[in-house]
Amino acid sequence: MNKPVRVLIVDDSEEDSELLVYELERGGYNPVYLRVDTPAAMMAALNQQRWDIVLADYSIPQFSATVALALLQEKQLDIPFIIVSGSIGDETAAAAMTAGAHDYLLKAKLARLVPALERELREAQVRQEHKQALFKLEYLAFNDTLTGLPNQRSFLNSIQKRIEQSQRKLHGLFAVLFLDIDRYQIVKYSLGHLLAEQLLVAIARRLETYLNPGDIFARVGTDEFALLLGDIQNPQSAQDRADQIQTALKTPFKLDGLVVSSSTSIGIVLSTIGYDQPEDFLRGADMAMHHARTQGRGGSAIFDRAMQTHAVERLQLETDLQRAIKCQQLHLNYQPIVSLTTGRVVGFEALVRWQHPTLGMVSPSEFIPMAEETGLIVSLGEWVLEESCRRLSLWQERFPKSSPLSISVNLSARELVQPGLIERIDELCFAFRLKAESLKLEITESILLENAEAAATILAQLKQRQIQISIDDFGTGYSSLSYLHRLPIDTLKIDRSFISCIDKQGKNLDIVKAIIPLAHSLKLDVVAEGVETEEQLLKLKALGCEYGQGYFFSPPLNDQAVVALIATMPRMEIEKKKFVTAIADHSSRRKNSGADDFFKASDSRELRRVSSNQRFSSTTG
Ligand code: C2E
Ligand code: MG
Ligand code: MG
User: Fold this and answer.
1) 287-300 pLDDT, tens per residue?
2) How far is 2 from 337, CA to CA, in rounded Å?
3) Which pTM was predicted?
4) Which CATH architecture has domain 328-560?
């Protein structure tokens, strides 16, 4: 089979052309050829199809090889170009090669034609591959391979150009928006890596349909997109565009038969901020996004310079927390959970504490959300789980005769869906010889509702092992009842915001009155959080609430205080107030009472501050 080759011949002689064709056929080719003898005809031929090689006579009446070469270059075509001439001097040939011809040969020595053609075709192929590789490299350098959008580098270049235009007063206002997908890590763990990536692509495609001419839309991080609004009328229009994006993302995505909802938090920097570095715009928008997120998911905020100070402090705190986890600056306190019928302590809730070297005690309400956002929660949570299991096992060993105690550990969303959780729990129960039913995991409703499928699978696995599940802060979130009977849950912990006013008639009392029988009908037991007064306790007892936790019984205690408490436990009875008195006596007798550091704030104003902080945490967490 002869090899096909497309040859464009620049020659005024049909006969000479046929000689070339004949030579190629002899060399094993099947040439498709066209002869042209004017620039216009050559142009038409180039427009008409792709050519593998040009064979050009050096000089013909209305045309020449140099003009033909110039035409190719004008059209930026890299086609092997061989001059085939009746006679050509060495100098002319050298000049033609300098101008870009690849080879030259004499019509009288056509035997060289095929080898020259083959060499040039090979070299053209190499040049082509090289060009493609360069093109790909350049594409990779400026584009994101997953979504095909410009990447961060390219986006920064676009901002740079826009800054320069502004400086030359070519355009008016512009804005940079930073979009971060809320809870992407959790989506990733619940849906798996591939579906999570599909979600990113789907988001990119949907948002592309909302772009205006002059906008640049890019992917600048794993789950981070950025938008340069090239021309805006006023600050409000940037805000309007952010709102529009958030509305656009409200419609759930269908991925592989699954319906996935998402939301984004958006930070905005307006060009009026006066930055001249593109990185500053992106960083500012990122900070504003974080600020928006602290106000709740799916919001937006316009950057101002105070956010920068705040972000620097926060970054410092993040670094400190990272170190604290590594250097074991964290410790656990344990708050007793008391049976309201027997007055006995049935278990403890492990609460993490951070004694910061310069800031003093930092509240978990402050650092837990930060740890969740940065992913530090995973290592923090692993430590909390292990330490809690270790302590419980030590207490059980030391007091074998005391009635069985349980330990409750708070788990955030990220921890619940983190791969390997179940295996880790199995290992810990085995290592510390704990019965699985003495471990309780406290999770909030939002975790169950926002990651319904993944959470259901994990809860089922936990249930198989008889690990107990409590719904923490019940009543502050969705208070959705549908999942309560569907999922294997053991306990509802009524949020302390309902307990705090339960001693007065009113809405809170009505809510608690409704929750308790509801829980019982679903065979769940109830823990009242934040019991602070005797009146609250009596009310809860009368309503049939099984367990209570709160400062009335005891603040969170350190390990030594827990040991002392367990040692005296069997003799305590709530009705006679001995329980409380016992702890109070015990505390005042010791210089370091072992009571929670927050609780120890002797000034009642300080205590209120802590309480209201915590109340805040329970409604937002
Ligand atoms: P939570 O799980 O609802 O824990 C109960 C919180 O209420 C604790 O706050 C506790 O000190 C406080 N408290 C207990 N009794 C009373 C009372 O009578 N009155 C008032 N006003 N407050 C009371 P804390 O220790 O500041 O923890 C706040 C939240 O931080 C916890 O709420 C929990 O959601 C989270 N948290 C604490 N430790 C951990 C942890 O190890 N892992 C995770 N993921 N979250 C944790
Ligand atoms: Mg809790
Ligand atoms: Mg709670």
Assistant:
1) 999 999 888 788 99
2) 90
3) 0.66
4) Alpha-Beta Barrel (3.20)
